[in-house]
Amino acid sequence: MPVSAWRHRLTTWAAKQSNRGMGIDERRERERAARRSAILQAGWEVAEEQGWARFSVEKVAAKAELGRATIYGYFESLEMLVLSLAAEAIDELTERVAQAPGLSEALDVPVRLAQQRPAAFALLFPESENARKLFLSPHLEELRGDALEVIGRLKKLASRSGANLPEDSKSAAAFISGISIAGAMVPELKNSTTMRRKWQEFCLGVIRQQAAEEAPQDPETPAGSEAS
Predict the structure, then answer these.
(1) Distances from the Cα of 130 to the Cαs of 94, 136, 186, in angstroms?
(2) What is the pLDDT of residues 47-65, one digit of tens each?
(3) 115 plus 167 within the same structural domain
(4) b/e code 108-133 from CB counts within 10 Å (16+ = b)
(5) Count of domains for the chain
(6) Which of 6, 20, 67, 208 has a CA between 20 and 30 Å from the CA of residue 137?
(7) pTM of this prediction?
């Protein structure tokens, strides 16, 4: 029996076991949620295997073994499907940042996402103008801005580590985001943890040095005078 047939039988059996004792409406809602989740998973598989440039509702339907009409029953357009995938990617990004044990590991989150979930990273942080234009919409750009904000929130953690960041919150967030995203996009940094650590330390060290140079100095006590 084909693997897909076994998967269908196991899924159906599990659903029947879970649905015992449920009301009709509750069961239908649960089945609909499971189907929606399966469509999104198929979407990720298509994006990982073929890239966003070749992503389409038809390919997602084929991967999920469903008809196009079924896909549109859950996502009214290709844009809505992509936005739902972007929202999932942001949830994962947020969770990874929250679980990072320290600043260096948190700054590395985009790198790990790019390595382990390249399609998710490419959707949130497109590396070229052509990639950014795929599925371009105000809603997707807003979600991409949210993704940068997730990284930018590390400014508090950076400040606690000794970095004296710009006073303006947006500037500080942009600075931290830049350090982090560069580590995921510059090949030499992406492929070497040692190089990334040096990059992070260099950037944060420059900020510390500038802060020290700009700090007001106490006027020198004139020679021969005594402190009162």
Answers:
(1) 26, 10, 18
(2) 999 999 999 999 999 999 9
(3) yes
(4) bbbbebbeebebbbbbbbbeeeeeee
(5) 2
(6) 67
(7) 0.76
